Protein backbone atom coordinates (compact mmCIF):
# COMPACT_ATOMS: atom_id res chain seq x y z
CA UNK A 1 0.00 0.00 0.00
CA UNK A 2 2.17 2.80 -1.28
CA UNK A 3 0.99 6.24 -0.27
CA UNK A 4 2.33 9.24 1.53
CA UNK A 5 1.34 11.36 4.47
CA UNK A 6 2.65 14.17 2.32
CA UNK A 7 -0.49 13.96 0.21
CA UNK A 8 -2.21 16.05 2.91
CA UNK A 9 0.18 18.93 2.21
CA UNK A 10 -1.74 20.93 -0.46
CA UNK A 11 1.45 22.37 -1.93
CA UNK A 12 3.38 19.08 -1.64
CA UNK A 13 6.38 21.08 -0.47
CA UNK A 14 7.53 18.85 2.38
CA UNK A 15 10.49 16.52 1.84
CA UNK A 16 10.33 13.33 3.94
CA UNK A 17 13.42 12.11 5.76
CA UNK A 18 12.69 8.54 4.71
CA UNK A 19 9.90 6.02 4.10
CA UNK A 20 8.77 3.76 6.94
CA UNK A 21 6.93 0.45 6.57
CA UNK A 22 4.53 -0.30 9.44
CA UNK A 23 3.39 -3.88 10.08
CA UNK A 24 0.44 -4.85 12.32
CA UNK A 25 -0.29 -7.91 14.45
CA UNK A 26 -3.38 -8.12 16.68
CA UNK A 27 -4.10 -10.37 19.67
CA UNK A 28 -7.79 -10.25 20.58
CA UNK A 29 -9.01 -11.08 24.09
CA UNK A 30 -11.02 -14.31 23.93
CA UNK A 31 -13.34 -13.61 26.87
CA UNK A 32 -14.74 -10.59 25.06
CA UNK A 33 -16.13 -12.68 22.20
CA UNK A 34 -18.42 -15.73 21.95
CA UNK A 35 -16.55 -18.76 20.63
CA UNK A 36 -19.00 -19.22 17.75
CA UNK A 37 -18.60 -15.70 16.36
CA UNK A 38 -17.16 -15.62 12.83
CA UNK A 39 -14.40 -13.00 12.80
CA UNK A 40 -13.33 -11.01 9.74
CA UNK A 41 -10.67 -8.67 11.18
CA UNK A 42 -9.46 -5.65 9.23
CA UNK A 43 -7.61 -2.54 10.45
CA UNK A 44 -8.12 0.96 9.03
CA UNK A 45 -5.40 3.62 9.42
CA UNK A 46 -6.39 7.28 9.74
CA UNK A 47 -4.00 10.22 9.60
CA UNK A 48 -4.64 13.54 11.30
CA UNK A 49 -4.27 16.58 9.05
CA UNK A 50 -1.80 19.10 10.45
CA UNK A 51 -3.97 22.17 9.98
CA UNK A 52 -7.58 21.08 10.48
CA UNK A 53 -6.91 18.16 12.86
CA UNK A 54 -9.40 16.20 10.75
CA UNK A 55 -8.92 12.41 10.62
CA UNK A 56 -8.70 11.07 7.08
CA UNK A 57 -8.49 7.45 5.99
CA UNK A 58 -5.05 6.54 4.67
CA UNK A 59 -5.55 2.86 3.95
CA UNK A 60 -6.64 -0.49 5.32
CA UNK A 61 -5.28 -3.97 5.68
CA UNK A 62 -6.68 -7.00 3.93
CA UNK A 63 -9.54 -8.92 5.57
CA UNK A 64 -8.42 -12.21 7.14
CA UNK A 65 -11.13 -14.82 7.47
CA UNK A 66 -12.05 -16.21 10.87
CA UNK A 67 -9.02 -15.54 13.08
CA UNK A 68 -8.56 -13.91 16.48
CA UNK A 69 -4.88 -13.21 16.03
CA UNK A 70 -4.50 -11.74 12.53
CA UNK A 71 -1.00 -11.26 11.08
CA UNK A 72 -1.61 -8.87 8.19
CA UNK A 73 0.35 -9.14 4.93
CA UNK A 74 -0.56 -5.66 3.71
CA UNK A 75 1.66 -2.94 5.15
CA UNK A 76 1.35 0.81 5.51
CA UNK A 77 4.20 2.76 3.90
CA UNK A 78 4.43 6.25 5.37
CA UNK A 79 6.60 9.25 4.67
CA UNK A 80 8.46 10.12 7.88
CA UNK A 81 9.03 13.76 8.80
CA UNK A 82 11.36 14.03 11.77
CA UNK A 83 10.35 17.60 12.49
CA UNK A 84 6.60 16.90 12.72
CA UNK A 85 4.27 15.07 15.08
CA UNK A 86 2.43 12.62 12.85
CA UNK A 87 -0.69 11.40 14.67
CA UNK A 88 -2.08 7.98 13.69
CA UNK A 89 -5.34 6.25 14.57
CA UNK A 90 -5.96 2.54 14.02
CA UNK A 91 -9.55 1.22 14.04
CA UNK A 92 -10.83 -2.33 13.91
CA UNK A 93 -14.29 -3.80 14.48
CA UNK A 94 -13.74 -4.02 18.26
CA UNK A 95 -11.94 -0.84 19.13
CA UNK A 96 -9.24 1.67 18.31
CA UNK A 97 -5.87 2.93 19.46
CA UNK A 98 -3.75 6.04 18.94
CA UNK A 99 -0.03 6.68 18.59
CA UNK A 100 2.43 8.75 16.59
CA UNK A 101 4.74 7.52 13.88
CA UNK A 102 7.64 8.80 15.96
CA UNK A 103 6.56 6.58 18.88
CA UNK A 104 6.69 3.47 16.71
CA UNK A 105 10.08 4.35 15.25
CA UNK A 106 11.54 5.35 18.62
CA UNK A 107 10.34 2.28 20.52
CA UNK A 108 12.79 -0.47 21.48
CA UNK A 109 13.57 -2.57 18.45
CA UNK A 110 11.07 -0.55 16.41
CA UNK A 111 8.18 -2.49 18.01
CA UNK A 112 5.37 -0.75 19.90
CA UNK A 113 2.53 -2.41 21.82
CA UNK A 114 -0.81 -0.66 22.31
CA UNK A 115 -4.13 -1.68 23.87
CA UNK A 116 -7.25 -1.78 21.71
CA UNK A 117 -10.03 -0.01 23.62
CA UNK A 118 -13.69 -0.16 22.66
CA UNK A 119 -16.07 -0.64 25.61
CA UNK A 120 -15.24 1.97 28.28
CA UNK A 121 -13.00 0.45 30.94
CA UNK A 122 -12.51 -2.77 29.00
CA UNK A 123 -9.54 -3.93 26.91
CA UNK A 124 -10.49 -5.62 23.65
CA UNK A 125 -7.02 -6.81 22.72
CA UNK A 126 -3.47 -5.83 21.96
CA UNK A 127 -2.05 -4.46 18.71
CA UNK A 128 1.67 -4.63 17.99
CA UNK A 129 3.31 -2.24 15.53
CA UNK A 130 6.64 -2.98 13.89
CA UNK A 131 8.46 -0.28 11.92
CA UNK A 132 11.34 -0.59 9.48
CA UNK A 133 13.01 1.98 7.26
CA UNK A 134 12.69 0.99 3.62
CA UNK A 135 15.72 0.65 1.40
CA UNK A 136 15.97 2.03 -2.13
CA UNK A 137 16.10 -1.47 -3.66
CA UNK A 138 13.87 -1.58 -6.78
CA UNK A 139 14.40 -5.20 -7.87
CA UNK A 140 11.39 -7.41 -8.48
CA UNK A 141 11.50 -11.19 -8.05
CA UNK A 142 9.32 -13.53 -10.07
CA UNK A 143 8.67 -16.84 -8.35
CA UNK A 144 6.77 -20.04 -8.86
CA UNK A 145 6.61 -22.83 -6.31
CA UNK A 146 5.65 -26.47 -6.42
CA UNK A 147 5.60 -29.20 -3.77
CA UNK A 148 5.73 -32.98 -3.92
CA UNK A 149 4.41 -35.64 -1.52
CA UNK A 150 2.80 -33.35 1.04
CA UNK A 151 1.31 -34.79 4.22
CA UNK A 152 -2.37 -35.70 4.05
CA UNK A 153 -4.13 -33.49 6.60
CA UNK A 154 -7.83 -33.72 5.69
CA UNK A 155 -9.79 -36.78 6.88
CA UNK A 156 -12.03 -36.98 3.80
CA UNK A 157 -9.55 -35.62 1.27
CA UNK A 158 -5.88 -34.85 0.75
CA UNK A 159 -4.67 -31.36 1.72
CA UNK A 160 -5.46 -27.80 0.71
CA UNK A 161 -1.93 -26.32 0.83
CA UNK A 162 -0.79 -22.72 0.78
CA UNK A 163 2.53 -21.00 1.55
CA UNK A 164 3.36 -18.04 3.81
CA UNK A 165 6.60 -16.07 3.34
CA UNK A 166 8.29 -14.23 6.24
CA UNK A 167 11.38 -12.06 6.43
CA UNK A 168 13.53 -12.20 9.57
CA UNK A 169 13.98 -9.30 11.99
CA UNK A 170 17.01 -8.37 14.10
CA UNK A 171 15.28 -9.48 17.30
CA UNK A 172 14.74 -13.01 15.98
CA UNK A 173 11.09 -12.53 15.07
CA UNK A 174 9.61 -12.78 11.58
CA UNK A 175 7.40 -10.41 9.58
CA UNK A 176 4.90 -11.81 7.10
CA UNK A 177 5.40 -10.56 3.53
CA UNK A 178 3.43 -12.83 1.17
CA UNK A 179 0.77 -15.53 1.02
CA UNK A 180 0.11 -17.77 -1.96
CA UNK A 181 -3.32 -18.92 -3.05
CA UNK A 182 -4.80 -22.16 -1.68
CA UNK A 183 -4.60 -25.21 -3.96
CA UNK A 184 -7.48 -27.51 -3.10
CA UNK A 185 -7.29 -31.26 -2.53
CA UNK A 186 -3.78 -32.18 -3.68
CA UNK A 187 -0.51 -33.45 -2.26
CA UNK A 188 1.46 -32.15 -5.25
CA UNK A 189 0.47 -28.50 -5.61
CA UNK A 190 1.73 -26.13 -8.31
CA UNK A 191 1.12 -22.55 -7.22
CA UNK A 192 0.64 -19.71 -9.68
CA UNK A 193 3.68 -17.54 -10.51
CA UNK A 194 3.80 -14.27 -8.61
CA UNK A 195 5.97 -11.18 -8.46
CA UNK A 196 7.13 -9.55 -5.24
CA UNK A 197 9.32 -6.51 -4.67
CA UNK A 198 12.68 -7.58 -3.23
CA UNK A 199 12.21 -4.73 -0.77
CA UNK A 200 9.17 -6.56 0.65
CA UNK A 201 10.98 -9.89 0.75
CA UNK A 202 14.23 -8.79 2.44
CA UNK A 203 14.33 -4.95 2.30
CA UNK A 204 17.33 -5.07 0.00
CA UNK A 205 19.46 -7.28 2.30
CA UNK A 206 20.16 -10.25 0.05
CA UNK A 207 21.50 -12.39 2.94
CA UNK A 208 18.52 -11.79 5.25
CA UNK A 209 16.79 -15.01 6.26
CA UNK A 210 13.51 -15.75 4.51
CA UNK A 211 11.26 -18.38 6.08
CA UNK A 212 8.51 -20.19 4.18
CA UNK A 213 5.76 -22.01 6.10
CA UNK A 214 3.48 -24.59 4.50
CA UNK A 215 -0.10 -24.92 5.78
CA UNK A 216 -3.20 -26.96 5.06
CA UNK A 217 -6.12 -24.54 4.79
CA UNK A 218 -9.17 -25.10 7.01
CA UNK A 219 -12.43 -23.18 6.70
CA UNK A 220 -12.56 -22.37 10.43
CA UNK A 221 -9.17 -20.63 10.29
CA UNK A 222 -7.32 -23.29 12.29
CA UNK A 223 -4.90 -24.05 9.46
CA UNK A 224 -2.74 -27.15 10.00
CA UNK A 225 1.03 -26.65 9.93
CA UNK A 226 2.75 -28.96 7.43
CA UNK A 227 6.37 -27.80 7.39
CA UNK A 228 8.83 -24.99 6.78
CA UNK A 229 12.20 -24.14 5.25
CA UNK A 230 14.53 -21.15 5.34
CA UNK A 231 16.52 -19.52 2.56
CA UNK A 232 17.69 -16.05 1.49
CA UNK A 233 17.18 -13.89 -1.55
CA UNK A 234 20.82 -14.34 -2.53
CA UNK A 235 20.36 -18.10 -2.49
CA UNK A 236 17.11 -17.87 -4.44
CA UNK A 237 18.62 -15.69 -7.17
CA UNK A 238 22.10 -17.28 -7.30
CA UNK A 239 21.19 -19.27 -10.39
CA UNK A 240 18.66 -17.25 -12.38
CA UNK A 241 16.20 -19.50 -14.19
CA UNK A 242 17.49 -22.54 -12.34
CA UNK A 243 15.57 -24.41 -9.69
CA UNK A 244 16.21 -24.90 -6.00
CA UNK A 245 15.02 -27.90 -4.01
CA UNK A 246 14.39 -27.49 -0.28
CA UNK A 247 13.86 -30.32 2.20
CA UNK A 248 11.47 -29.48 5.02
CA UNK A 249 9.80 -31.40 7.81
CA UNK A 250 7.09 -33.98 7.18
CA UNK A 251 8.68 -35.35 3.96
CA UNK A 252 7.95 -32.21 1.94
CA UNK A 253 10.06 -31.14 -0.98
CA UNK A 254 9.55 -27.68 -2.45
CA UNK A 255 10.92 -26.71 -5.83
CA UNK A 256 11.30 -22.95 -6.10
CA UNK A 257 11.88 -20.94 -9.23
CA UNK A 258 13.11 -17.42 -8.66
CA UNK A 259 14.11 -15.05 -11.40
CA UNK A 260 15.08 -11.39 -11.18
CA UNK A 261 13.97 -10.04 -14.52
CA UNK A 262 15.93 -7.12 -15.91
CA UNK A 263 13.85 -4.59 -17.84
CA UNK A 264 15.34 -3.03 -20.96
CA UNK A 265 13.62 0.20 -21.93
CA UNK A 266 13.71 1.59 -25.50
CA UNK A 267 12.15 4.81 -26.78
CA UNK A 268 10.99 5.67 -30.33
CA UNK A 269 9.71 9.18 -31.18
CA UNK A 270 7.69 10.34 -34.20
CA UNK A 271 9.58 12.97 -36.26
CA UNK A 272 7.08 13.24 -39.09
CA UNK A 273 6.06 16.62 -40.53
CA UNK A 274 2.47 16.33 -39.31
CA UNK A 275 3.76 17.33 -35.85
CA UNK A 276 4.31 20.88 -37.13
CA UNK A 277 7.40 23.09 -37.22
CA UNK A 278 9.21 22.65 -33.85
CA UNK A 279 10.01 26.36 -33.76
CA UNK A 280 6.30 27.28 -33.71
CA UNK A 281 4.14 27.16 -30.54
CA UNK A 282 1.47 25.19 -32.44
CA UNK A 283 3.87 22.28 -32.99
CA UNK A 284 3.60 19.17 -30.83
CA UNK A 285 7.42 19.27 -30.73
CA UNK A 286 7.60 22.91 -29.63
CA UNK A 287 10.31 23.42 -27.01
CA UNK A 288 8.75 25.95 -24.66
CA UNK A 289 11.02 27.44 -21.99
CA UNK A 290 8.12 27.24 -19.54
CA UNK A 291 6.72 23.73 -19.88
CA UNK A 292 7.33 20.36 -21.49
CA UNK A 293 5.61 19.38 -24.71
CA UNK A 294 3.46 16.25 -24.90
CA UNK A 295 6.30 14.09 -26.23
CA UNK A 296 8.60 15.02 -23.37
CA UNK A 297 5.83 14.55 -20.81
CA UNK A 298 4.95 11.04 -22.05
CA UNK A 299 8.62 10.05 -22.21
CA UNK A 300 9.38 11.34 -18.72
CA UNK A 301 6.21 9.90 -17.17
CA UNK A 302 6.83 6.33 -18.34
CA UNK A 303 10.62 6.40 -18.37
CA UNK A 304 11.15 7.64 -14.83
CA UNK A 305 9.24 4.65 -13.47
CA UNK A 306 10.74 1.99 -15.72
CA UNK A 307 14.30 3.22 -15.19
CA UNK A 308 14.17 1.99 -11.59
CA UNK A 309 14.13 -1.57 -12.94
CA UNK A 310 16.92 -1.08 -15.50
CA UNK A 311 20.24 -1.49 -13.69
CA UNK A 312 22.59 0.15 -16.22
CA UNK A 313 20.30 3.13 -16.93
CA UNK A 314 21.33 3.04 -20.61
CA UNK A 315 18.31 3.50 -22.85
CA UNK A 316 18.35 3.05 -26.64
CA UNK A 317 16.45 6.00 -28.14
CA UNK A 318 15.33 6.25 -31.77
CA UNK A 319 13.44 8.61 -34.01
CA UNK A 320 11.43 7.75 -37.12
CA UNK A 321 10.06 9.65 -40.09
CA UNK A 322 12.81 12.31 -40.50
CA UNK A 323 15.36 13.37 -43.10
CA UNK A 324 18.85 13.17 -41.68
CA UNK A 325 21.83 15.38 -42.39
CA UNK A 326 23.92 15.75 -44.42
CA UNK A 327 22.26 14.09 -47.44
CA UNK A 328 18.57 14.21 -46.39
CA UNK A 329 18.15 10.45 -46.27
CA UNK A 330 14.81 9.37 -44.73
CA UNK A 331 15.16 7.10 -41.70
CA UNK A 332 12.61 5.22 -39.62
CA UNK A 333 15.01 4.10 -36.90
CA UNK A 334 17.78 6.65 -36.35
CA UNK A 335 19.57 7.03 -32.98
CA UNK A 336 18.56 10.27 -31.30
CA UNK A 337 22.09 10.77 -30.03
CA UNK A 338 23.47 10.89 -33.57
CA UNK A 339 25.82 7.93 -33.06
CA UNK A 340 24.84 5.24 -35.53
CA UNK A 341 26.78 2.59 -33.64
CA UNK A 342 25.49 3.43 -30.19
CA UNK A 343 21.82 4.43 -29.67
CA UNK A 344 22.13 4.41 -25.87
CA UNK A 345 21.38 7.48 -23.76
CA UNK A 346 22.33 7.80 -20.10
CA UNK A 347 19.16 7.99 -18.04
CA UNK A 348 15.84 9.55 -18.97
CA UNK A 349 17.40 13.00 -18.83
CA UNK A 350 19.90 11.80 -21.43
CA UNK A 351 17.04 10.64 -23.67
CA UNK A 352 15.32 14.02 -23.34
CA UNK A 353 18.54 15.85 -24.16
CA UNK A 354 19.08 13.69 -27.26
CA UNK A 355 15.45 14.26 -28.32
CA UNK A 356 15.79 18.04 -28.08
CA UNK A 357 19.11 17.93 -29.93
CA UNK A 358 17.58 15.90 -32.78
CA UNK A 359 14.82 18.46 -33.17
CA UNK A 360 17.53 21.02 -33.95
CA UNK A 361 19.36 18.87 -36.51
CA UNK A 362 16.89 16.71 -38.47
CA UNK A 363 14.08 17.68 -40.85
CA UNK A 364 10.61 16.42 -39.95
CA UNK A 365 9.24 14.47 -42.90
CA UNK A 366 7.41 11.11 -43.14
CA UNK A 367 5.73 8.68 -43.52
CA UNK A 368 4.79 7.22 -40.10
CA UNK A 369 6.33 3.76 -40.22
CA UNK A 370 6.38 1.68 -37.04
CA UNK A 371 7.66 -1.68 -38.30
CA UNK A 372 11.39 -0.79 -38.58
CA UNK A 373 11.73 0.20 -34.92
CA UNK A 374 9.60 -2.71 -33.68
CA UNK A 375 11.73 -5.15 -35.69
CA UNK A 376 14.93 -3.59 -34.39
CA UNK A 377 13.93 -4.02 -30.75
CA UNK A 378 12.46 -7.48 -31.46
CA UNK A 379 15.81 -8.59 -32.86
CA UNK A 380 17.45 -7.64 -29.55
CA UNK A 381 14.73 -9.45 -27.57
CA UNK A 382 15.16 -12.58 -29.70
CA UNK A 383 18.73 -12.93 -28.46
CA UNK A 384 17.68 -13.37 -24.80
CA UNK A 385 14.60 -15.53 -24.33
CA UNK A 386 15.49 -17.35 -21.09
CA UNK A 387 13.38 -15.01 -18.94
CA UNK A 388 16.32 -13.11 -17.45
CA UNK A 389 15.55 -9.98 -19.49
CA UNK A 390 12.38 -8.34 -20.74
CA UNK A 391 12.11 -5.49 -23.24
CA UNK A 392 9.69 -2.55 -23.17
CA UNK A 393 9.36 -0.31 -26.24
CA UNK A 394 7.70 3.08 -25.82
CA UNK A 395 6.53 4.63 -29.10
CA UNK A 396 5.15 8.18 -29.09
CA UNK A 397 3.33 9.37 -32.22
CA UNK A 398 0.91 12.01 -33.45
CA UNK A 399 -0.87 10.23 -36.26
CA UNK A 400 -2.08 7.22 -38.17
CA UNK A 401 0.39 4.46 -39.00
CA UNK A 402 1.41 4.38 -42.67
CA UNK A 403 2.71 0.79 -42.68
CA UNK A 404 -0.12 -0.96 -40.81
CA UNK A 405 0.31 -4.25 -42.70
CA UNK A 406 4.02 -4.43 -41.92
CA UNK A 407 3.42 -3.29 -38.33
CA UNK A 408 0.88 -6.04 -37.72
CA UNK A 409 3.37 -8.55 -39.08
CA UNK A 410 6.05 -7.17 -36.74
CA UNK A 411 3.72 -7.34 -33.73
CA UNK A 412 2.67 -10.92 -34.46
CA UNK A 413 6.32 -11.94 -34.75
CA UNK A 414 7.27 -10.06 -31.58
CA UNK A 415 4.45 -11.60 -29.53
CA UNK A 416 6.52 -14.74 -28.99
CA UNK A 417 9.44 -12.70 -27.62
CA UNK A 418 10.07 -11.05 -24.21
CA UNK A 419 8.73 -7.72 -25.41
CA UNK A 420 5.91 -5.29 -24.61
CA UNK A 421 5.03 -2.26 -26.74
CA UNK A 422 3.49 0.92 -25.34
CA UNK A 423 2.10 3.38 -27.89
CA UNK A 424 1.14 6.86 -26.71
CA UNK A 425 -0.79 9.04 -29.15
CA UNK A 426 -0.29 12.79 -28.75
CA UNK A 427 -2.24 15.64 -30.31
CA UNK A 428 -5.82 15.92 -31.59
CA UNK A 429 -5.72 13.25 -34.33
CA UNK A 430 -8.16 10.34 -34.47
CA UNK A 431 -6.40 7.14 -33.44
CA UNK A 432 -9.10 4.61 -34.26
CA UNK A 433 -6.75 2.54 -36.40
CA UNK A 434 -4.39 2.14 -33.44
CA UNK A 435 -6.99 0.05 -31.64
CA UNK A 436 -6.26 -2.72 -34.14
CA UNK A 437 -2.86 -3.17 -32.50
CA UNK A 438 -4.14 -3.14 -28.92
CA UNK A 439 -5.28 -6.73 -28.61
CA UNK A 440 -7.52 -6.37 -25.57
CA UNK A 441 -10.66 -7.13 -27.57
CA UNK A 442 -9.42 -8.87 -30.74
CA UNK A 443 -5.97 -10.42 -30.95
CA UNK A 444 -3.72 -8.92 -33.65
CA UNK A 445 -3.32 -11.11 -36.72
CA UNK A 446 -1.23 -11.08 -39.88
CA UNK A 447 -1.52 -13.33 -42.92
CA UNK A 448 -3.72 -15.77 -41.02
CA UNK A 449 -1.50 -15.90 -37.90
CA UNK A 450 -2.74 -14.70 -34.53
CA UNK A 451 -0.35 -13.07 -32.08
CA UNK A 452 0.54 -15.50 -29.29
CA UNK A 453 0.12 -12.79 -26.65
CA UNK A 454 -1.36 -9.32 -26.27
CA UNK A 455 1.81 -7.20 -26.12
CA UNK A 456 0.56 -3.77 -27.27
CA UNK A 457 -0.99 -1.11 -25.06
CA UNK A 458 -2.25 2.04 -26.85
CA UNK A 459 -3.53 5.19 -25.13
CA UNK A 460 -4.22 8.73 -26.34
CA UNK A 461 -2.40 11.16 -24.05
CA UNK A 462 -5.26 13.68 -24.21
CA UNK A 463 -7.37 11.33 -22.06
CA UNK A 464 -4.97 11.84 -19.15
CA UNK A 465 -4.37 15.59 -19.28
CA UNK A 466 -5.43 17.33 -16.07
CA UNK A 467 -7.99 20.07 -16.74
CA UNK A 468 -6.27 22.46 -14.36
CA UNK A 469 -3.04 22.18 -16.35
CA UNK A 470 -1.15 20.22 -13.69
CA UNK A 471 1.52 18.42 -15.74
CA UNK A 472 2.72 16.29 -12.83
CA UNK A 473 -0.77 14.90 -12.31
CA UNK A 474 -1.21 14.30 -16.06
CA UNK A 475 2.06 12.35 -16.20
CA UNK A 476 1.20 10.28 -13.13
CA UNK A 477 -2.17 9.28 -14.61
CA UNK A 478 -0.58 8.29 -17.90
CA UNK A 479 2.20 6.22 -16.33
CA UNK A 480 -0.15 4.39 -14.00
CA UNK A 481 -2.39 3.28 -16.85
CA UNK A 482 0.13 2.34 -19.53
CA UNK A 483 2.43 0.44 -17.18
CA UNK A 484 -0.33 -1.53 -15.45
CA UNK A 485 -0.28 -4.35 -18.01
CA UNK A 486 3.51 -4.91 -18.05
CA UNK A 487 3.70 -7.41 -15.12
CA UNK A 488 0.95 -9.60 -16.60
CA UNK A 489 2.54 -9.43 -20.05
CA UNK A 490 5.88 -10.47 -18.57
CA UNK A 491 4.28 -13.44 -16.81
CA UNK A 492 2.38 -14.43 -19.96
CA UNK A 493 5.72 -14.64 -21.79
CA UNK A 494 7.18 -16.84 -19.05
CA UNK A 495 4.25 -19.21 -19.35
CA UNK A 496 4.27 -19.22 -23.15
CA UNK A 497 7.96 -20.21 -23.17
CA UNK A 498 7.46 -22.89 -20.55
CA UNK A 499 9.74 -21.12 -18.07
CA UNK A 500 8.45 -22.92 -15.01
CA UNK A 501 9.71 -25.36 -12.37
CA UNK A 502 11.14 -28.66 -13.42
CA UNK A 503 13.38 -31.00 -11.41
CA UNK A 504 16.79 -29.77 -10.37
CA UNK A 505 19.76 -32.13 -10.21
CA UNK A 506 19.05 -33.88 -6.92
CA UNK A 507 18.57 -37.33 -5.48
CA UNK A 508 14.81 -36.98 -5.83
CA UNK A 509 13.49 -36.81 -9.42
CA UNK A 510 10.02 -35.65 -8.29
CA UNK A 511 8.28 -37.80 -10.93
CA UNK A 512 4.76 -36.87 -9.83
CA UNK A 513 5.52 -33.17 -10.27
CA UNK A 514 5.84 -33.53 -14.04
CA UNK A 515 2.27 -34.65 -14.36
CA UNK A 516 1.00 -31.51 -12.63
CA UNK A 517 2.90 -29.01 -14.80
UniProtKB/TrEMBL annotation:
Residue span, C2 domain: 123-246
Cellular component terms per the entry's GO annotation: plasma membrane
Segments crossing the lipid bilayer: 20-47
Top-level taxonomic group: Eukaryota
GO biological process: cellular response to calcium ion
Gene3D superfamilies linked: C2 domain
Keywords for this protein: Calcium, Membrane, Metal-binding, Repeat, Transmembrane, Transmembrane helix
InterPro entries named in the record: C2_dom, C2_domain_sf, C2B_Copine, Copine, Copine_C, VWF_A, vWFA_dom_sf
Pfam families documented for this protein: C2, Copine
Molecular function terms from GO: calcium-dependent phospholipid binding; metal ion binding
Protein family membership: Belongs to the copine family.
PANTHER family linked to this entry: COPINE, COPINE-9
Name this polypeptide is given: C2 domain-containing protein
Amino acid sequence: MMASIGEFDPLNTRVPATKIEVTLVIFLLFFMLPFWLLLLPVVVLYLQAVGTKEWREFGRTEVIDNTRNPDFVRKFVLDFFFEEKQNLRFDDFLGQTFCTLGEIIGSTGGRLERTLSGIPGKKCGVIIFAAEELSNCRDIATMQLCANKLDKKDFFGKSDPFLVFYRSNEDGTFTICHKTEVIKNTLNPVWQPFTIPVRALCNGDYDRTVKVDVYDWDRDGSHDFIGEFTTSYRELSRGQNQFNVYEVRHNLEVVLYCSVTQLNFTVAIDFTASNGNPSQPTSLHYMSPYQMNAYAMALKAVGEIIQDYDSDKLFPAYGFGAKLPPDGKISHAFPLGGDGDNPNCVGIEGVLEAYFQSLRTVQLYGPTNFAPVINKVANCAAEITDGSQYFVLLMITDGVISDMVQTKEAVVNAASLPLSIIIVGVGPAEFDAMEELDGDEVRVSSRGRLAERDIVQFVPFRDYIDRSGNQVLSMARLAKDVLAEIPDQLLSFMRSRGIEPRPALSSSPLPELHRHI
